[in-house]
Design brief:
202 residues, Rossmann fold, globular, alpha/beta, 31% helix
Length: 202
Amino acid sequence: MKLLQDRIRQDGQVLTETVLKVDTFLNHQVDPMLTMEIGKAFAQKAESAGVTKVLTIEASGIHFAMATAFTLGVPFLYAKKKKAVTLTEDLYTTEVFSFTRQESFQVSVSKRYLNAEDRVLIVDDFLATGDALLGLVEIVRQAGATLVGVGAVVEKSFQDGRAKLEAAGVEIHSLARIRSMSPETGVTFIEETLTENEEALV
């Protein structure tokens, strides 16, 4: 997605070779117009899959899930990291590890809102190690629902998240796939470095 790639180049900050800061437009201060375009891109990819629910994890994936669900005309659902006193129903739960926060936490979704009849599209902001997304995949499987795919806004393709998801049989669509990055050279996207043979396959 060229619009997203251009914005990452313009406003993203590469802090290290593994840490990209996008909090001016994606996950702290949010550009709503860009967010809606991201939702349209995910929805277009999944429009023929019969999606009934869009699932994400709080908090940084919520606005992308909402934009996607709005475009598809279906509800979105987010897994909660802490159990609220009002969440009294039976729950699907799993433990995930956050690369950004470097800590593990339990996430939960009410069984009331996810069931075997659902066809679920998972959406999140980043794909890095893949642990959070694998946690959501586990919740979908606990529900007996059908997973139609996973959408990641930004993928750090130099980390092992994609390989883990593919090994689990999950189809992944990422809007901006980063091949490499550094504070000195900035961000290189996979599409920019395709060989002639790779281009012939696109």
